[in-house]
Write a structure and sequence with these properties.
The protein is an alpha+beta fold and 284 residues long. Among the domains are: 129 residues, Sandwich (Hypothetical Protein Tm1070, Chain: A), CATH 2.60.290; 66 residues, no CATH class. The chain contains three helices and 13 strands. The strands form four sheets. The protein has a four-stranded antiparallel beta sheet with strand order 1-6-3-4, with no helix packed on it. A four-stranded antiparallel beta sheet has the order 5-2-7-8. The protein has a three-stranded antiparallel beta sheet with strand order 10-9-11, with no helix packed on it. The longest helix has 35 residues.
Length: 284
């Protein structure tokens, strides 16, 4: 009788120990699962990038920034930012003294600032009809922990105007961009296709396309020349479509900003500009 009671007691102790072990195991698993929940990265300073554009001789590029908003300016709602110009290699342009063409500005509601890239500075040490450049506004302070970020109210406009007449030849508007990604740029294939969806070809029959892999801040380009667009045609105009396709990346990447320009072969001046947001074809 005593032996039977002792057996039940041992079984109870063993069962209790087993339940305790399972409970500890479950608690430990829950704690491990909580640790595995990814922590979102902190908000980064706002950046407005307008993509690559070409500057021709006798032209000036001007980047304007303004903080939109009504009412009286609030000193507590200000945006401290740097505005600047970069070349296709991701390097800042410099003036004749070697000083980078960049400046720090402090914006409050309805106030604006500007920065110019002059022809002399853009073409210094360079030859050709055109120089590729991009304008950028980079907020210098982290977003506030509470309330809206005033730098998200900044709208940037890029003008390219004639040095003699002052007339604007080109205008691009940017603003409301999301926080910049820390991911590398995606490898992309760029090409030109006709109205039938077939690629244009050069004189040797090779499709006009290129595979471009970019480091952050760098740019690439592909041209569709009139001689290739009109080969075998006699019409006054040719319909075309630029295509940017993200090549399957080995890891997550950030689609680049695409710009389409149509420019004069003799003056190099841009007559049409379209800025895309890096939306690749969906693929198959």
């Amino acid at each position: 009788m005593c032996s039977h009671k002792r057996s039940r007691t041992l079984v109870g102790i063993f069962t209790g120990a087993l339940l305790m072990a399972l409970l500890i195991g479950l608690v430990g698993t829950a704690a491990f699962a909580i640790d595995e929940i990814p922590v979102p990265p902190p908000p980064q300073p706002v950046q407005v990038a307008l993509g690559m554009v070409g500057l021709a001789h006798l032209q000036t590029a001007r980047l304007n920034v303004v903080m939109v908003g009504g009412g009286q300016p609030d000193p507590g709602q200000r945006c401290r930012a740097e505005i600047s110009f970069f070349d296709a290699a991701g390097q800042l342009f410099r003036d004749s003294s070697g000083v980078p063409i960049a400046t720090e500005v402090i914006l409050v509601s309805d106030q604006a600032a500007r920065l110019d890239l002059r022809e002399a500075d853009a073409f210094r040490g360079r030859t050709g009809l055109r120089v590729a450049f991009r304008a950028r506004m980079q907020a210098l302070d982290l977003p506030p922990t509470t309330g809206p970020d005033p730098c998200r109210r900044v709208v940037a406009t890029l003008e390219v105007f004639d040095n003699f007449t002052g007339r604007t030849n080109l205008l691009a508007i940017g603003g409301g961009q999301p926080d910049p990604s820390n991911l590398p740029a995606c490898p992309v294939e760029v090409s030109f296709v006709n109205a039938s969806g077939d690629p244009f070809r050069d004189a040797s029959g090779t499709p006009i396309k290129a595979l471009i892999a970019l480091d952050p801040g760098q740019a690439g380009a592909l041209d569709l020349r009139s001689v290739d667009a009109f080969r075998g045609l006699t019409s006054m105009r040719v319909a075309f479509r630029p295509v940017l396709r993200v090549v399957f990346p080995p890891s997550p990447c950030e689609p680049p900003v695409a710009t389409l320009e149509v420019f004069d072969n003799f003056t190099g001046r841009t007559s049409l500009l379209a800025i895309g947001g890096g939306n690749p074809d969906p693929g198959e």
